[in-house]
Amino acid sequence: MIEIRFAYADDAAVVLGFIRALAEYEKQPEAVEVSEATLRQQLGETPAPFEALLASDDGRAVGFALFFHTYSTWRGKRGVWLEDLFVLPDERQRGVGRMLLARVAAIAVERGCARFEWSVLDWNRLAIGFYKGQGAQLLDEWRICRVSNEALEQLTRR
Description:
Elements: E1 2-6, H1 12-25, H2 36-44, E2 51-57, E3 60-72, E4 77-87, H3 96-110, E5 116-118, H4 125-133, H5 149-156
């Protein structure tokens, strides 16, 4: 039976394992810079910069969802941003992803959030189909903007 629970500081190694597995799946394993120590520290902070849910089957972690709050200026309410959702490949098609997504949605509703959002890679047709099947609307007119690393430093000097 699948159990969903919040991740705590002692779960840092498990969370990092899922982050690395997701990066591998997305063909960017070298992009992971975070360490177990950093995750352990952050999961122990109040407030923590993110929250994570772990899905377990008979004590074995099989998936995770990592999320944090955003804010809608138009709605005047917080929202939830799902940064990562990942289920081990051999555990897919069992409803684990659906359970994790539903639990994050329930948290958003319980906390009075205006919306629940995330992004998906355009080549990830399985995920896109899954999300559409869960009622998600893909917002094709919106694009993600990102400034990081040296470009972030350069922006501070403009």
